[in-house]
Amino acid sequence: MEVEVLLKLGNLYLERKAWEEAKLVFLRICKQTKLAVAWHGLGVAYLFLEELSNAEQALNQANLLNDENCYTWGALALLCLKSTEETPGRYFEFKQAIRRALDLGLDDPHLLTAIGHEYVRKVYLYGTTEVSKFDHSEALVCYKLAFSSLKEKDSVLEEVKEEFDKLRAKNNNHLDKDILSRIEASKESVVSVLSTD
């Protein structure tokens, strides 16, 4: 099969969130050629399959081939968050990657929403005493950009509400009242900002 056809097939799998199939297609392309877009696709597939070490290698290769791809920088930002066991972890790498992604024009609502969700999960579920140094502002930036680039805004708003509710419910017994109230305050703040956009 021609590389062009395989790229279309791989991207179709990514759109459908068929991560395993996308991985196989992009692996095949990467063996044949050195295309940044193929390495990016492979990295994204690995990322959502939670194969974080492989994802990092593939995304770094994509970045070496083209360091102007906002989507690769966005995927690297998400990778930094996913790789963080406990805050601050790779927070500062995340900050650099997300800043670069946004400077280059990242506008993928699904990736931005995933980054926002992962950010609040890491801060509120796996935060230590350092959690007080973090807030929801990074997630809010991602949510706002995702929100502004979608026609169906209600679905994103509901997804954001559900994410905060899941955080609260998931660790209702494990988190102290201060963090639970911060989760609720963050939810109200984010929903308020998105509702006025």
What integer value in Å does the Rg equal? Answer: 17 Å
- Total strands: the figure is 0
Helical residue percent? over 70%
- Beta-strand portion reads under 5%
- Helix count? 10
Amino-to-carboxy terminus distance = 45 Å
Poorly predicted regions = none
Structural write-up:
With 197 residues, the chain is mostly helical. The chain is 75% helix and 0% strand. The protein has ten helices and no strands. It has helices at 3-15, 19-32, 36-48, 52-65, 70-82, 91-103, 109-125, 137-148, 153-170, 177-196. Helix 3 runs antiparallel to helix 4 and helix 4 (52-65) packs antiparallel against helix 5 (70-82). The model has no long low-confidence stretch (mean pLDDT 86).
SSE layout:
Blueprint: H1 3-15, H2 19-32, H3 36-48, H4 52-65, H5 70-82, H6 91-103, H7 109-125, H8 137-148, H9 153-170, H10 177-196
Helix pairs in contact: 1-2, 1-3, 2-3, 3-4, 3-5, 4-5, 5-6, 5-7, 7-8, 7-9, 8-9, 9-10
Quick summary of this structure?
This protein has 197 residues and is an all-alpha fold.
List keywords for this structure.
single chain, 197 residues, mainly alpha, 10 helices
